[in-house]
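Hi R.,

Here's the chain you asked about this morning:
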Amino acid sequence: VYPSQSNYIMCRVSQPWTAKELATRLLTRHRILIKALSQKQGFEGKEYVRIAIKDSAENDTLIKALRAYV
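And here is the predicted structure, written out as tokens:
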């Protein structure tokens, strides 16, 4: 996780997942939308996602979903 001045955080995605795979899985299985950054300029070959900070309930749902893939 990297410092942020907005309501987003950027996180590095570790193997065996790619950023795109994680974003797709969270969307299709949990209806959670995160942004894969791997195709963005400056991120080529790196696996990062951008996650919005939401309310406590939505953040808890995200954390629970992410734990299934750690």
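One quick note: The chain has a mean pLDDT of 90.

Cheers,
M.
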